[in-house]
């Protein structure tokens, strides 16, 4: 005769541990099944992952056109660098990363290198133009302005470009700054005498030379109210218009 075996479970243990454990296992199993179906089974059935896209080829395209292509593919654009290129025009895309055909997640930033155009350019003819016009032309050529030198010129009106340096028409590197020589108009033959009273002798000399005048006779006068070396008076009144190279005599204070 076969023996019968029975398993007895403590009711308190059954309701406190066994039932909750079974319920937790069922919930975890259900969540795991849903995740597996959504992430593994369904993509394999459909053949694609909804968050993965193929990177389009934008090399050679204009930057804005390339941005538009990437945007339509669900991707963003990031400019990594700009460099000169002998073949591609300015603002064309030289390279991209990741490369075309790569599989990436949507909203991924695609790094691009953008062309600055050819590394050399011909200096445009900016003679007889204003400084503003010259800057516009230089910018169009991919060049930048360097130093500005102003000089008198008998034929060119005030603020008109006389010449560029290097000269207009020269082929140069785009990294080279182009200096401009601008006319101050015909050289004047007269100058207004500056006010020198109260200035130091060194400052008075400087102002006289800057006015295309010359220092004339210097005499000294005892004057305790002024610092030694201060201009007490001048031979020609301030504001008087005199020929270039006119001599201005000075009286300088001393304390004896």
Keyword list:
alpha/beta, 3 domains, elongated, three-stranded mixed sheet, Trypsin Inhibitor V, Chain A, single chain, 31% strand, 256 residues
Characterise the protein shown here:
- The chain is α/β, with parallel strands linked by helices and 256 residues long.
- It folds into three domains: 53-115, 2-Layer Sandwich (Trypsin Inhibitor V, Chain A); 120-183, 2-Layer Sandwich (Trypsin Inhibitor V, Chain A); 190-254, Trypsin Inhibitor V, Chain A (2-Layer Sandwich), CATH 3.30.10.20.
- Helices cover 26% and strands 31% of the residues.
- The strands form six sheets. A three-stranded mixed beta sheet has the order 2-5-3, covered by helices on one side.
- The model has no long low-confidence stretch (mean pLDDT 88).
In brief, what are we looking at here?
This protein has 256 residues and is of the alpha/beta class. The protein has four helices and 15 strands.
Q: What fraction, in percent, of the residue positions are helical?
A: 25-40%
- Net shape: elongated
Q: Count the helices. How many?
A: 4
- The CATH topology of the largest domain comes to Trypsin Inhibitor V, Chain A
| Strand line-up across the major sheet | 2-5-3
Distance between the termini: 149 Å
Number of domains: 3
What's the CATH architecture name of the largest domain? Answer: 2-Layer Sandwich
Question: What summary fits the major beta sheet?
Answer: 3 strands, mixed
* Poorly predicted sequence stretches spanning 5 or more consecutive residues: none
Number of extended strands: 15
Category by helix and strand content: alpha/beta
Q: Work out the strand percent.
A: 25-35%
SSE sequence, one letter per element: HEHEEEEEHEEEEEHEEEE
Quickly name the level 1 CATH class of the largest domain.
Alpha Beta
